[in-house]
From TrEMBL:
This is LysE family translocator. Its main location: membrane. Pfam families: LysE. Keywords: Cell membrane, Membrane, Transmembrane, Transmembrane helix. InterPro entries: LeuE-type (IPR001123). It is found in: Cell membrane. The keyword Membrane applies. The chain crosses the membrane at residues 21-44, 50-70, 91-112, 124-147. It is a multi-pass membrane protein.
Length: 183
C-alpha cells in the first residue's frame, strides 16, 4: 500500500525525472531491510533499547516530508534544469523517510511470526527472508517508479504540474501529520 515514501518518490520523479529516483529507491529499500532485520532479531528489544533513536528518525522523516511539501507547494509549475544531487542525498532521504514510518515495522511484525518460528531461524533462512524481502520491495518500488514516469509524461503544462505539485504537497503534509500524531 502506498505511503509517504511513495508520495515522495512520485514527487521526485515528476519534478526531476526517473533518473533522479534510483538512489532514493535504494534508500527506501535499505530502510525497509533495517525494519525486516529488526523484526527478525527481536524488534521489541531493539525498540526498547534504542527508543530515542527511533523517535529521532521518526521526526527526521516528518521534517523531510514537510520540507518536500513546502518545496512542492511553492513551485511555479515550470521545470528548470535541476542541479545534480549531492552523492547520497537521495539515499539518505529515502532511508530516513522509510525508517521514520512505522508501517513497515507493524507489517513485518504481524506477518513474519505467522509464517516462521522467529526463535528458530537458521542463518540460511534469515538470508533467504532478507533477500526475498529486498527483491519484492525493490520490484514494488520499481512499479511506482514506472507509474510516476508515466504521470510525468502526462503532466506537461505548467498548470498541470502546479496542480500535481500542490496535490502531492498536501498529501505529504497530511502524511507528516499522521506520522507525528502516532505515539
Amino acid at each position: 500500500m502506498p505511503g509517504p515514501a511513495q508520495g515522495a518518490l512520485f514527487a521526485r520523479v515528476v519534478s526531476r525525472g526517473a533518473a533522479s529516483a534510483w538512489s532514493f529507491i535504494v534508500g527506501m529499500v535499505a530502510g525497509n531491510a533495517v525494519w525486516l532485520l529488526a523484526t527478525i532479531f527481536g524488534l521489541s528489544a531493539l525498540a526498547v533499547r534504542f527508543a530515542t533513536v527511533f523517535v529521532v528518525v521518526k521526526w527526521l522523516g516528518v521534517l523531510f516530508l514537510l520540507y518536500m511539501a513546502w518545496r512542492l507547494w511553492k513551485s511555479d509549475g515550470t521545470r528548470a534544469a535541476q542541479q545534480p544531487e549531492r552523492s547520497g542525498s537521495g539515499f539518505l532521504a529515502g532511508a530516513f523517510l522509510t525508517l521514520g514510518n512505522p508501517k513497515a515495522m507493524v507489517f513485518f511484525g504481524a506477518v513474519l511470526p505467522q509464517a516462521f518460528d522467529m526463535t528458530a531461524l537458521s542463518s540460511a533462512q534469515i538470508a533467504l527472508i532478507l533477500t526475498l524481502g529486498i527483491a519484492v520491495d525493490f520490484l514494488v518500488q520499481l512499479f511506482y517508479l514506472i507509474l510516476a514516469r508515466q504521470t510525468r509524461s502526462f503532466i506537461s503544462s505548467p498548470k498541470r504540474v502546479r496542480i500535481a505539485d500542490r496535490t502531492a504537497a498536501a498529501m505529504m503534509a497530511g502524511c507528516a501529520g499522521a506520522i507525528a500524531a502516532k505515539g
